[in-house]
Amino acid sequence: MIYLTRKCEFSASHYYHNPQWTEDENRRVFGKCANLNGHGHNYTLEVTVKGEVDPTTGFVVDLKQLKEILNREVVDAMDHRHLNKEVPEFAAKVPTAENLAIAIWQRLAGKLQVAKLHRVRLYEMPDLFVDFYGEA
Amino acid sequence: MKAHLTRRYILSASHRLHAPALSEEANQATYGKCNNPHGHGHNYAVEVTVSGPVNEETGMVCNLADLDEAVERTVLERFDHQNLNTLAEFETLVPTTENLTQLIYNILKLSFSSAHLERVRIEETLNNSFEYADGANLRHR
Fold it and tell me: What is the pLDDT of residues A114-126, one digit of tens each?
């Protein structure tokens, strides 16, 4: 088994708001992130896939293909966009780094032909990241 | 769904590696430059990883403000800008980063309970890092 990690970056805006709660409650739980005008981050995404090395190509995954999937499913869909307003997963879900890592996993899982998705690591900032391994 | 969240903190401290049970020569041979009697310092980068189900209402494993507060109060206030050798915790314990990593893990295990503490990882320099998870298997890629 070998693991391969591909990195990509995107910049997006978001805010945290739970419509079931009062404004005060939103402010108390989400702090500055509750500002409804939104704010943004430069996200760094690391996607790790695993599998056996193909004896003919020497690849665990075709990087060109992986890059295309990442561009289509993540970068094109999220870069320079407002997560709450433009990414359907967050129409009714708070776009925290946790939920974003899960949404990215769900977009990628099943799209890989040979290798298996192992981990999605999403940096919201250099000092904060979330790992998702597809666990229920 | 279960996610892991990692937050990185910086603390600066000095230390000297010296084991009283060893002779001067043995200390010198074991610890080299780190045995300098005047000590030396590092900017330690402390990574704290917690895990748990992502809360449906908040979208969070835990509130980052709670984690920051616990780390600030029980770790950074205790160790930042200190000489580790002068602290009670290291009175009979060599302040290697192995020992510091375990100590910080054990402190956080008690002071933070909003999510499961997975591991503490400390970068002593860009070349050396240490991880502790209290016997649990560390999850490497």
Answer: 899 999 999 999 9
ipTM score above 0.85: yes
Per-domain boundaries in chain B: 2-132
In the chain, the amino acid numbered B141 is: R
**CATH classification code of B2-132:** 3.30.479.10
For residue B59, the model assigns a pLDDT of 97
Cα B76 to Cα B68: distance, rounded to the nearest angstrom: 10
Active site residue A8: no
Phi and psi for B81 in degrees, rounded to 5? 55, 40
Which residues of B lie inside 8 Å of A (Cβ-Cβ)?
Answer: 1-9, 49, 54, 57-61, 63-65, 139, 141
Tell me the CA end-to-end span of chain B in Å, nearest whole number: 20
CB atoms within 10 A of CB A106: 15
**φ/ψ of residue A39, rounded to 5:** -155, 175
Reported confidence tier of residue A67, pLDDT bands at 50, 70, 90? very high
- Whether the pLDDT of residue B140 is over 90: the answer is no
